[in-house]
User: Which sequence fits this backbone?
């Protein structure tokens, strides 16, 4: 959606396909980081954007065993907004779509699911889509796969996926938030269990971390045992834990970390999770995808307008974005393998690693995770022009 918006804004004719009738899917990436808020500011849309319902998180704390660690402080990040905005992804997408529709070059097709690529002489020249009105064939100078970690586009293109692996899965659920509850967005790790709690105003969005493939064990042990483990981490939820009425109220996110060796072939480019699936560690996935979109628009808008886009242009997008992607994935792997996985498999109360203890002792060090999570390694900026509406 961001790429379609920026290209249409620059005068490139764009068709965006969305396979559902709306964007109302729960428990998607809802963290809009300072880097993305900075882009909204560069587009002149920040004030309007922040009028949408959201919560602002300027600090993140983490409790590991008996030790509480102030882990991230966004007050010094080099951006205008020094906080994460917790906003439903459907509101973000609706906002971008509404502004994109101001440009005559933007076309959004809902209930249109990409099913295959059109390939002629080894060049991707369009795609096929399934709609309620029948099959649709779209010819294009460039097809961009933005269809996530289970991408149909990348599968049909025959791209090689490098599976890095993740030792965890996540169970998402929500519990009501009540007067007297803490305001903090926080996490808590104990022996054999871990949970993140995001303050969403009138409810807590909870992410309970389990070992990879552990959902069957959780269900076999039963709902009362699961509720008890949640309360061991957050006892103040005792008066509302019954809101988890069955495992239907608990959604499984199968965590994956992978990446394509090549993101492109003639006529085709993949970005976001279609090019590199991210772990939920740090909540950076949506923001990294937005950065990919901005870089792609900056590099491709001119060649697309003139009809001169080449594979070298597509390769330039990957070159631009592969380094920050690898740095963040490496950070996620270290956190998962060195902290989360050992804690989940241990029967002893965990202790913070030395690095996290140093962050607790030296507030200046909190700028490092804040910079990595909030801004990223190579933040992008809007360089595409705006054509008359």
Assistant:
């Amino acid at each position: 959606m961001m790429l379609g918006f920026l290209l249409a804004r620059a005068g490139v004719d764009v068709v965006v396909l969305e396979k559902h009738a709306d964007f109302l899917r729960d428990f998607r990436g809802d963290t809009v980081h300072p880097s993305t808020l900075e882009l909204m500011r560069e587009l002149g849309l920040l004030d309007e954007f922040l009028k949408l319902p959201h919560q602002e998180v300027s600090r993140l704390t983490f409790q590991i065993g008996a030790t509480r660690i102030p882990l991230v402080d966004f007050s010094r990040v080099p951006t205008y907004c020094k906080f994460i905005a917790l906003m439903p992804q459907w509101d973000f997408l609706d906002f971008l779509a509404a502004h994109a529709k101001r440009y005559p070059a933007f076309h959004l097709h809902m209930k249109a699911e990409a099913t295959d690529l059109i390939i002629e002489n080894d060049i991707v020249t369009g795609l096929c889509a399934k709609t309620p009105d029948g099959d649709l064939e779209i010819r294009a100078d460039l097809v961009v796969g933005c269809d996530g970690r289970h991408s149909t586009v990348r599968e049909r293109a025959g791209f090689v996926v490098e599976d890095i692996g993740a030792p965890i899965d996540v169970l998402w659920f929500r519990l009501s938030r009540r007067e007297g509850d803490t305001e903090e967005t926080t996490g808590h790790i104990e022996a054999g269990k871990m949970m993140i709690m995001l303050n969403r105003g009138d409810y807590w969005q909870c992410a309970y971390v389990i070992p990879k493939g552990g959902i069957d064990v959780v269900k076999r042990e039963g709902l009362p045992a699961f509720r008890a483990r949640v309360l061991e981490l957050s006892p103040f939820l005792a008066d509302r834990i019954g809101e988890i009425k069955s495992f239907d109220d608990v959604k499984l996110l199968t965590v994956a970390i992978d990446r394509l060796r090549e993101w492109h072939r003639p006529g085709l480019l993949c970005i976001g999770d279609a090019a590199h699936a991210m772990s939920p560690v740090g909540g950076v996935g949506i923001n990294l995808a937005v950065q990919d979109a901005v870089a792609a628009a900056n590099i491709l808008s001119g060649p697309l307008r003139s009809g001169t886009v080449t594979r070298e242009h597509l390769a330039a997008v990957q070159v631009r974005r592969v380094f920050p992607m690898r740095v963040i994935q490496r950070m996620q792997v270290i956190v998962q393998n060195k902290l989360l996985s050992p804690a989940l498999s241990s029967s002893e109360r965990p202790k913070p690693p030395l690095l996290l203890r140093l962050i607790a002792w030296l507030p200046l060090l909190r700028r490092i995770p804040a910079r990595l999570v909030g801004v990223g390694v190579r933040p992008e900026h809007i360089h595409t022009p705006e054509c008359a509406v």
